[in-house]
Structures are given as C-alpha cells and as structure tokens.
Write a sequence for this structure.
C-alpha cells in the first residue's frame, strides 16, 4: 500500500503519526496542494473529494477519510493497539477521537479556510466552490478554545484522552493543538496545565516528528 | 443495552434504522429535547456533549456519536452485515457513510441550527453557546444540493451508495434526504433520477419507519 499525502497537510500528519506509532513504513506519494494537484484528473480518480490523504492498497482500492484510514490500519495491523482491544474500548476511543476532530480539528480548518486570501472561493474542502464567511474565523477559534478547556478537564481524570493508554484520540489532539498554533495562532492557555503537560509529553514521542 | 434518543432527532433515527435492519429490539429511553433535558445534570453524565443518541451498555458504558454506535453494533452483532464483511469493505463503506454525513447530513444540521429563532445562541450542538451566522443557512442548503448531485452520479454506477449491498451509508443518506426535505425544504431535483429511484426504494424498507 501507499499513502498519498502532503507534508503541509495536518490531516496527512494524523495518518503519518498513526503509521509511525504502528511501526509501519508505507511509501509516501506527495500531492502538490500549492499547485492544485488535488484537483487534477489523476488525483480525482483516487479521491473524488480532492483531498489528502488517501491510502491506496496494492489492488488499487483507495481509502479516504482519516478516521476510516486509521481504523482500517488498526484492523489489518493490530499491534500495538491504538483503539484499545475490545469492541467497547474501540467504541470509546473512536468516540473521543471524533469529538476532538469535530470540535477541535475541524474548527481550526473552518477558521483558516474562511480566512486565507488564497481560498476566497474555497471555504470548504472538496469538489465544490463556496465563498468564505468571515464570522466563521472567530467562531472557529472560539470552538477550539472551548475544546481545549473541555479536554483539559478530561485529562485531569485520565492519563490519555481515551483512557490509560495512548490512542488515536491522542494523535488527533496532538495534530489539533499544533495546527491551531500554526494556522490561527491559538495556543493552549497557561491555566490548562493538564493539557499542557499532555502536549509536552505527546510532542516528545518519536511519532510526533512524522 | 438501551438507547437514549428522541423521536424528533434525525441523528437518533439513523441508529433506530440501523437497529431495525439488524433485527435488534433495544429499549428506547426518550430524552425531551424541547424541554432541554439533554442539558440537565442527569443526561450530561451520560453524554457530555448534551446530544442524542447515546447507547448505554448493561455495565454502564455510554457510547456517543452515531457512526461509532453503528460500528460498535456491527462489531457485536455481525448479521446482516451493514458495513460489508472484509476490512476493505468496512473501510469503503465507512468512507462513503462519512462523506454523506459530512457533506449532507451535517450541512442540513448547520443550515437549520443557524436558522431557527429558538436556537439564536445555540448554532452548534454541544455544551457551548455560539451565535447564529445567517450566511450558513444558504450555504448549508447549497452543500446539500451539491451532495445530492454527487450521490446521484454515484448511484448511476452502483446499486447502493457503498456498493452492491444496502449498508450504513444508505441509512445515512436516507436520513439526510428526509431531514433536508423536512427541516430546510430542500428536495431531490427531478433530474436526479438515480437518487430519486434509490430514495423511493429505501423508503419502502420496513426500517424506514423507525
């Protein structure tokens, strides 16, 4: 299999970190987002939503959507588990991962896509054009701040987001924190000490460089 | 196990249809959204995002997020398969389900939550207040229309959304089409004959009444 990705894509980074935690070396195929390669005929055959990343299997099956790619890799490469081991652990891990994605990661994406001058007609990723809505910039940033406070409360009771073990939910949170700092200059406030400690530790894992 | 739900919640309907297709009879516990029961202390212990549905297991484990509930039910009640049988089929089904959810179902939700006078400070579901943004009403409706056109093209090549078998992706599409018609008066255009035929057939399944 191989992963179509971009080094500048935080969604691609989520999968790269996941692969690194699994100890999997998968060939990476760069997609040049700056040149619009994701909108070209060749890539649209691979991903009709025009987004990275996409995992392409040896028989040509193309799997898009980060949480789906992660779960597929988990199902086919079970060690070390990044969703837990039982059906219940898998469900709780996927639930936490999704909350962080929907409230946090997607909010950063919404803020930046509705802000960048180069994306005036591209406020939503995908095959269709949508005009930017300026009010979403501040709302997205506020959603991220609220998510940070909620996750800090969670991390006061739990070593990692989904429980006692590092999981895919931590990967999505790490990608969210770093994306928020870089793209919209939203940092973890000093008072959120549990989240800050968690972020410091997560950033020191070798996978964080992926 | 039991399902906390609301008869007026299209997200709850997605799980009810899924259960009906599985032939599972699960006790339903109503949550009175009109009275704000989802914001009360009791329900927040079950679901900190204040949303329905939540699946609560016999040991008290509470699973939120519709796609996570569906996958848990699939993992623990495998027949009939609603995600396909292999890891690859599961991935492709989850991918299609997510595309329809993110582009379609979530767009209807965004349009209606930013429109209803009763939700002026509740434009985003969850524990935090956000003011409505009027421009999202039209953008949400346009995203739904674009999704309908994209899915129509898909259904010209495929009997069901994710392939030759009815799946959870069809359930999410059915919930999306009916939600769009009811909540924001967006109907399937006459020219989208593949989607219209699919909808007519899906609506005739006994599960559609769930």
């Amino acid at each position: 299999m191989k992963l179509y990705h971009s080094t500048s894509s935080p969604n691609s980074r989520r999968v790269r970190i996941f692969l690194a935690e699994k100890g999997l070396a998968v060939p990476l195929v760069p997609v040049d987002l700056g040149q619009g390669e994701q909108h070209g005929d060749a890539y649209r055959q691979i991903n009709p939503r025009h987004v990275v990343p996409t995992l392409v299997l040896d028989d040509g099956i193309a799997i898009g959507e980060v949480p789906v790619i992660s779960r597929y890799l988990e199902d086919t490469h079970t060690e070390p588990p990044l969703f837990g081991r039982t059906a219940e652990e898998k469900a709780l891990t996927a639930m936490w991962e999704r909350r962080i994605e929907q409230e946090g990661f997607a909010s950063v994406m919404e803020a930046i896509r509705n802000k960048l001058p180069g994306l005036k007609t591209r406020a939503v990723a995908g095959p269709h054009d949508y005009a930017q809505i300026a009010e979403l910039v501040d709302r997205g940033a506020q959603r991220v701040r609220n998510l940070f406070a909620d996750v800090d409360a969670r991390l006061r009771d739990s070593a990692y987001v989904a429980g006692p073990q590092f999981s895919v939910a931590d990967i999505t949170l790490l990608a969210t924190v770093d994306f928020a700092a870089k793209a919209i200059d939203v940092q973890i406030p000093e008072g959120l000490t549990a989240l800050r400690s968690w972020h410091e530790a997560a950033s020191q894992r070798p996978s964080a460089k992926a």
Chain B touches chain A at residues 48-49, 57, 61, 63-65, 67-69, 71-72, 75-76, 87-88, 90-92, 94-95, 98-99, 103, 124, 126-128, 130-131, 133, 135-136, 139, 142-143, 146, 150 (CB under 8 Å). The two ends of chain B are 18 Å apart (CA to CA). Chain B has seven helices and four strands.
